[in-house]
Specification:
The complex is a heterodimer of chains A (about 170) and B (about 150).
Chain A lengths: L25 E5 L5 H12 L4 H13 L5 E8 L2 E11 L8 E9 L8 H15 L5 E3 L6 H9 L17
Parallel strand pairs in A: 4-5
Antiparallel strand pairs in A: 1-2, 2-3, 3-4
Chain B lengths: L4 H15 L7 H8 L3 H13 L3 E4 L5 E4 L8 H5 L18 H23 L2 H11 L6 H5 L3
Antiparallel strand pairs in B: 1-2
Helix pairs in contact in B: 1-3, 1-6, 2-3
The chains are: A alpha+beta (about 170), B mainly alpha (about 150).
Bound molecules: coenzyme A (COA).
């Protein structure tokens, strides 16, 4: 996830020229092949890197061959994709009971702070419940204040796990 | 994790103000609730006022009122007005020994986690947690039903 920060104290941003109009109906639904251009553009805008192959491959695994365990959803207002979320149910990873993992969520910068992130997370959680799990997890870079604040606002707390890493000697 | 007394008082106070943003709360009310001297608490509230998180109100009742954005003010912002949670006292002087450096790297790992945690939790998130933990008031209609 990127390091974009947004912990300013200002209230909602002023109307953005490309911002979906307030009150526009939001639809969350499974991603389709036709959404990929919009998804790639949103990701490129957020992360600064265009990764076309990566998204096509991800779509093959999570979108096209969708199962109850794998979810790739988009949020749409007035026919335009504004954000997406990806996740899957992982079974008995490191001994922990099956749980839903969210490993990507992004909302187009011009459409943020209008509840779309909340809708996307809610939709994927519904999917996880449907798949039979009762816990959802994610992994966020410690310095990504924006995404951390978002997940905290959704009631998520630190999991009883610690991620460890080390540089591999050449 | 241990925070200094003034820092804790600042956090308790901000929680009171954020929970009741329209209320004008006298310092003595919070001091009584947490069993601290009104003098100590006043110093803490003045600091919060200087940081723009509270409005100081004069008049007969006096007191303070919340003036921040509870959805954007993080616990870290409040804490850092009173202490630097990453600051470590200097070692015995001279070049730090390998042992000191090794231990310092563990301590700073813990500090970084603490900072990220405090920096991602807003007053609003904590107030909501508090509300959820409170036993829900039974609606009058439900209470009127025969058992
Ligand atoms: C995190 C993200 C998905 C949130 O989307 P969003 O549509 O703006 O989220 P919502 O409008 O539902 O916000 C819900 C809550 O999150 C918190 N939040 C969201 N943005 C915030 C910000 N800039 N600062 C502080 N809190 C924020 C708030 O508590 C907010 O509630 P509020 O609007 O009542 O204040 C979006 O900011 C984003 O896409 N960020 C970049 C993600 C990224 O780096 N992805 C990389 C690939 S995975």
């Amino acid at each position: 996830m990127s390091n974009s920060r947004g912990n300013d104290r200002s209230p909602r941003p002023a109307a953005h020229p490309e911002r979906p109009p307030d009150g526009a109906a939001v639809i969350t639904r499974p991603a389709q092949a036709g959404d990929l251009d919009a998804i790639i553009a949103i990701d490129a805008e957020v992360t600064g890197i265009e990764k076309t192959d990566y998204w096509y491959e991800l779509f093959q695994r999570y979108g096209a061959s969708r199962t109850r365990q794998r979810l790739f959803l988009v949020a749409e207002t007035e026919g335009a994709v504004q954000g997406f979320v990806i996740g899957e149910v992982r079974d008995w990873e490191f001994g922990s009971a099956p749980c839903g993992w969210v490993f990507g969520i992004s909302v187009r910068p011009g459409a943020r702070l209008a509840g779309l992130g909340t809708r996307l997370l809610g939709a994927i959680c519904d999917g996880f419940r449907y798949a039979g799990v009762s816990q959802v997890r994610t992994l966020v870079a410690r310095d990504n204040a924006l995404v951390l604040s978002f997940f905290r606002s959704q009631g998520m707390m630190a999991a009883p796990v610690i991620t460890l890493e080390k540089a591999l000697e050449p | 994790m241990k925070l200094q007394k003034s820092t804790l008082l600042a956090l308790y106070s901000m929680m009171e103000f954020a929970r009741y943003p329209d209320r004008q709360i006298p310092a003595t009310e919070i001091a009584d609730k947490y069993g601290v001297s009104a003098h100590h608490l006043s110093k803490v509230l003045r600091e919060l006022g200087r940081a723009g998180l509270l409005d100081s109100l004069r008049g007969v009742r006096g007191g303070y009122r919340f003036s921040g954005n509870a959805k954007r003010v993080t616990l870290l912002e409040v804490i850092e007005l009173f202490e630097d949670i990453g600051a470590r006292p200097d070692g015995p002087g001279g070049e730090a020994s390998d042992t000191e450096r090794a231990l310092a790297s563990v301590l700073s790992e813990i500090d970084e986690i603490a900072k990220a945690t405090f920096g991602s939790i807003t007053l609003d998130v904590l107030v909501k947690q508090l509300e959820m933990r409170r036993p829900r008031a039974v609606s009058t209609e439900l209470a009127a039903l025969p058992v």
